[in-house]
Amino acid sequence: MNNSGIKVRLVIGLIMAFMAVLSYYGKTQENPLTGEKQQVNLTPEQEVAMGLQAAPQMAEEFGGLYPDKQVQDQVKTLGNKLITIFNQDVKSRGMGNPFSFDFHVLADSKTINAFALPGGQIFITAALLGKLKSSDQLAGVIGHEIGHVVFRHSSEQMAQTEFYQGLAGAATAVAGDMGASQIANYVAQAKLMKFGRNDELESDEFGIKYMVMAGYDPNAMIEVMEILAESGGGSERDEFMSTHPSPANRIIKIKEHIAKYGK
């Protein structure tokens, strides 16, 4: 291709990259619970609405809700205990919690998982719940998922995905071939993987802090990591291309958090 064509592609690529950066940093908000400046796609109210809207479909994908009301109530009670402690702490710092939390057990007896939707809808599968041996362990899992909501990780990931996709598109426009596009997308995906691992570690710390404040044994979080490792729910894959840190690496950090917040 002649120099003129290369220059045109370069200009287009630079414009696309500039627009991606402008759009990303135009989404800066202050987290009302942490004070952190974040690039997020949604307001807290929109996150709550999105989570409530998505919750029934999410439950359906995991076989619906677990049919035992007593089990559902036990998980809700524990989750609400953690939220009460968190809200008291937030109130003592002159803030209010804009999120609306609810806790659900999914009927899936094979998939070992727990996750949070934006705004406060939190789920744990029957498969994972069945592996847990104490309320302390359950508090570790639920506290971790509450942390994802409080730190607005889902909304951050949405903004980050758009940003890196925009940069990948700019690189493709400049290079003008599929090979470059694949490389650019790989780099973008690797970047998002890194953010994912950091989010998990941040939520681990949150969970430990509020487990302790609610009177649960934070060492149970180490037991949860061991359960995940044994069951394959946190398999020792190549950590570079995994959204979750390996259980062994998480345990190192968890011990540091226990020393920081533990009794």
Would you write up a description of this structure?
- The protein is mainly α and 263 residues long.
- It has helices at 3-25, 44-61, 69-92, 126-131, 135-150, 153-175, 178-213, 220-231, 247-261; strands at residues 28-30, 37-39, 102-106, 114-116, 121-125.
- It has one domain (3-261).
- The strands form 2 sheets. Strands 3-5-4 form a 3-stranded mixed sheet, with helices on both faces. It has a two-stranded antiparallel ribbon with strand order 1-2.
- Helix 3 packs across helix 5 (135-150) and helix 5 packs across helix 7 (178-213).
- The model is unreliable at 233-242 (pLDDT under 50).
Provide keyphrases for this structure.
263 residues, mainly alpha, three-stranded mixed sheet, two-stranded antiparallel sheet, 5 strands, 66% helix, globular
Write the layout of secondary structure elements.
Layout: H1 3-25, E1 28-30, E2 37-39, H2 44-61, H3 69-92, E3 102-106, E4 114-116, E5 121-125, H4 126-131, H5 135-150, H6 153-175, H7 178-213, H8 220-231, H9 247-261
Parallel strand pairs: 3-5
Antiparallel strand pairs: 1-2, 4-5
Q: What is the number of helical segments per DSSP (H or I, 4+ residues)?
A: 9
Q: Name the shape in a single word.
A: globular
Average of the residue pLDDT scores: 82
- The biggest beta sheet, please? 3 strands, mixed
Gyration radius over CA:
21 Å
Question: How many separate domains make up the residues?
Answer: 1
The strands making up the biggest β-sheet line up spatially as: 3-5-4
Coarse structural class: mainly alpha
**What are the segments in which pLDDT stays under 50 over at least 5 consecutive residues?**
233-242
Total number of beta strands:
5
Helix and strand succession?
Answer: HEEHHEEEHHHHHH
Strand % is: 5-15%
Helix residue percentage: 55-70%
What is the terminal separation in angstroms?
68 Å
